[in-house]
Design goal:
Shape: globular
Number of helices: 7
Distance between the termini: 30 Å
Radius of gyration: 18 Å
Strand order of the largest sheet: 6-7-8-3-9-10
Largest sheet: 6 strands, mixed
Helix content: 25-40%
Order of helices and strands: EEEHEEHEHHHEHEHEE
Number of strands: 10
Structural class: alpha/beta
């Protein structure tokens, strides 16, 4: 579903060149849950940003659902994020003036969907994340865990094939974080979505099918979640 071939990203800052990602190659199959862990600055978020089309690689290839994404135009990436990719951030990025159900409906409205179809789908994904009872509340009236659930519902509203999650439990307490990871895990068990998770949390990474450790822009080891058991 997601294939990276010798993917690299280099930033030039004045006279300094920083290699954020170095020749990363891997394949994440349909319905798989892959986590990336490692210290700050190791390249985790850079990798996720490239897969999302939020940045462009210096070299290498990205294949999304069999399509070579490195040839995408800006419009192609817009369509991909509208139809194929869902993104969940650590900062929830909900629109403050909109209710939960309005936030969830927003991406559907932006792509041109209208009427009862939008309303039904928004209610459906809110039910999926157990937030129908808070549908008419605005973000400021919701807890951090509730806001993240709404953000996940919004990311799923357009039925993406790939869910990219960048530190989705970073602003949550341990109980809320456990609930969010259980929710994301349930999506892959249903075979509905492929998940790429970036996290500092070893406990969050234990929800994945397998875990890649990154260091200095490289993939250095692949482990099973059981190998992380007992690690904070």
């Amino acid at each position: 579903m997601v294939t990276l071939v010798q993917l690299s990203k280099t930033y030039v800052r004045g006279e300094t060149t920083v290699a954020a990602l170095r020749d990363v190659s891997l394949e994440v199959g349909r319905g798989e849950f892959c986590a990336f862990v490692g210290p700050s600055g190791c390249g985790k978020s850079t990798l996720l940003g490239l897969v999302a089309g939020l940045d462009h690689p210096t070299s290498g290839d990205i294949l999304l659902d069999g399509r070579r994404a490195t040839t995408f135009t800006s419009n192609d990436w817009t369509v991909a994020r509208r139809d194929v990719i869902g993104i969940v951030f650590q900062a929830f990025h909900l629109v403050p003036g909109l209710t939960a159900v309005e936030n969830v409906a927003l991406p559907l409205l932006l792509r041109g969907d209208r009427g009862s179809t939008v309303a039904r789908r928004a209610e459906e994904v809110l039910e999926m994340v157990s937030m129908t009872h808070r549908r008419h509340h605005r973000p400021g009236e919701l807890s951090g865990g509730e806001q993240q659930r709404v953000a996940i519902a919004r990311a799923l509203a357009h039925r993406p094939k790939v869910l990219l999650a960048d530190e989705p439990t970073g602003n949550l307490d341990s109980h809320q974080g456990t609930d969010i990871m259980a929710l994301i895990r349930s999506l892959t068990k249903a075979g509905e979505v492929t998940v790429l998770l970036v996290t500092h949390s070893q406990s969050a990474a234990q929800s994945a099918d397998y875990v890649w450790t990154m260091q200095d822009g490289r993939l250095v080891s692949r482990t099973t979640p059981s190998a992380l058991a007992g690690v904070a």
